[in-house]
Amino acid sequence: MLIKPKLEGQVVLVTGASAGIGRDTASRMVELGATVVGCARDAARMSDLPVDARRCDVSSAADRASLVDGVLRDHGRIDVLVNNAGIGIAKLVEQMTTADVESLIATNCTGLVDMARLVLPNMLDRGSGHIVNISSGAAWISMPPFTVYCATKSFVDAFTEGLRREASGRHVRVHSVNPGPVKTEWLPRSMGFVPDEGSAEQRDGHGVSVSRVVDAIVRCLLRPYGRTASVPRFPIGLARATELPLVRQALDVGGRMAASRLRA
Ligand SMILES: NC(=O)c1ccc[n+]([C@@H]2O[C@H](COP(=O)([O-])OP(=O)(O)OC[C@H]3O[C@@H](n4cnc5c(N)ncnc54)[C@H](OP(=O)(O)O)[C@@H]3O)[C@@H](O)[C@H]2O)c1
Fold first, then answer.
1. CA-CA 20 to 30 A from 100: which of 33, 55, 124, 170?
2. 173 CA to middle of ligand 1, Å?
3. Structural domain span for residue 92
4. Distance (Å, rounded) from C-alpha 92 to C-alpha 150?
């Protein structure tokens, strides 16, 4: 059974709150009593959510700064940042454009780091806070056609670990949640679907339900220390064993076969 954190009086900022994991996280945080600010590039998709919905493209430095300034001005504090906004692009490296590479890194890496950097002073001043970075099991297994995406998630893990060590002595907890495939729009969008194109069934990807990921995010808020949570624990947690040389060699073979199929 999931023990519920009490979030009354707390301000939670969720990036990428218009769909998938971010949307359900925002709703759950409201149920737990928090004041929730959600952002996405298309703010209209949050109009049915009981949150303070703001337009922000996390790949834009100006948008990030004005989002955090606005939340601090209007709500006075940020207790929890759920650094969730992220995109995938399903292409081999040789098939990608420079713009593809730049948008993946600007959204999944620069956007995520800078959101954390912007909220930190308020958390450190108050001596409390949680930053939950949504990473992926893909951080541990890099596979075509998601090589660059996987690299961005390895970056998220390395950043999470370092920031955890920087901030934990000052009572700011830094977590990562690393899901395997989750049933959201992410996969179809990675393959070029545009939201609202086709039926919901066509748009939703395959994998575990979003609520399992949200449960893991909620559990982070109960911890007095930063944690890395794989969802589901089995088998995604096992992916951490990919550092073992034999497992790595087997993945090399599988990856090479996948790449040649995708090139054909
Ligand atoms: N689904 C999976 O299988 C899976 C597995 C592991 C990890 N993850 C990670 O989980 C996170 C959420 O993914 P999801 O599955 O919920 O995807 P999703 O259903 O496609 O939702 C993505 C959300 O992020 C927003 N977003 C995308 N780019 C943005 C930007 N530049 N600025 C602000 N918001 C942006 C989208 O809204 P707008 O388009 O309106 O901006 C949307 O609200 C991502 O970091 C993803 O990498 C997903």
1. 55
2. 22
3. 11-263
4. 12
